[in-house]
Write a structure and sequence with these properties.
Length: 260
């Protein structure tokens, strides 16, 4: 099994924004299968769910952007599908990791059991990779060690403390997000949405009024003569005033859209 310094693991992962960790899984999977003759599902089962989740979330975000308070039923169904998809993707990830961890557990003489690996994955994501690599780097020593083939008490104690800290950080992050959401002034955004709706409706009404005015202008004055010229000018001025109001409403609407 390839030995990699932990600082290099961290550096490569940081420089590639986490992509290297997926490569790590793919390479360790191949090594584990060759060394143990065990079967591990293809690494695509680890990569595909998050990629599909992102791809599925993009259209959901566009759909949600146009929803209003009146579209509560549509929003509920939309986010319900998204939640279901994300749950399935997470379950596939855990299933793959369980299969991978079961083989890795034997390779490192049960220093990290599958249960601990899943717990680290849920709370610490890529932290489990560093733990696995730490024991992979010590494989020759592990083979000759007289320690029992199981997690040491030190590992268990540190793992419990680490997972408690990670759990506390996750809870604190969630609590801060909820506090920030509760103290955000949503009224301004809601008022602006109502203002945009009013402008849009005003533009539509003025457009209908202008179309009706020009239609009557053509019907009432099929031909402009000296006798009806004054009346035509008055009717034309009326349509022109409506057009100027329509143009101003459209410009106000577009300007408000750019500011949001």
């Amino acid at each position: 099994m390839k030995k990699i310094a932990l600082w290099k693991l961290f550096l490569f992962g940081s420089l590639t924004f986490g992509i290297y960790y997926l490569v790590w899984f793919a390479k360790r999977r191949a090594e584990l299968q060759k060394a143990s003759k065990s079967s591990i599902p293809h690494w695509a089962w680890l990569v595909a769910p998050p990629l599909l989740s992102i791809a599925f979330s993009i259209p959901i975000a566009f759909i949600s952007y146009g929803l209003t308070a009146d579209d509560f039923a549509t929003a509920t169904v939309t986010f319900g599908f998204l939640l279901l998809f994300l749950t399935v993707a997470f379950a596939i990830n855990v299933w793959w990791l369980w299969r991978f961890s079961a083989v890795m557990e034997k390779a490192i003489y049960r220093r990290v059991t599958t249960g601990w690996a899943i717990a680290y994955w849920i709370f610490g994501i890529y932290l489990i990779i560093f733990i696995w690599q730490f024991y992979l780097n010590r494989l020759p020593k592990l083979r000759t060690s007289s320690d029992p083939a199981a997690p040491t008490s030190k590992f268990i104690a540190l793992s419990i403390a680490g997972l408690l800290i990670l759990g506390a950080l996750n809870i604190a992050s969630f609590a801060f997000s909820m506090y920030d959401a509760q103290n955000t002034d949503w009224s301004t955004e809601y008022d602006n949405s109502e203002y945009l709706d009013d402008l849009d409706q005003k533009s539509r009404d003025l457009q209908r009024e202008y179309d009706s005015c020009t239609e009557h202008l053509d019907l009432d004055f099929p031909e402009v003569t000296e006798e009806n010229e004054d009346e035509y000018d008055k009717a034309y001025d009326t349509c022109d005033k409506i057009y100027r109001k329509l143009d101003r409403a459209i410009r106000d609407y577009n300007s408000s859209i750019q500011q949001t």
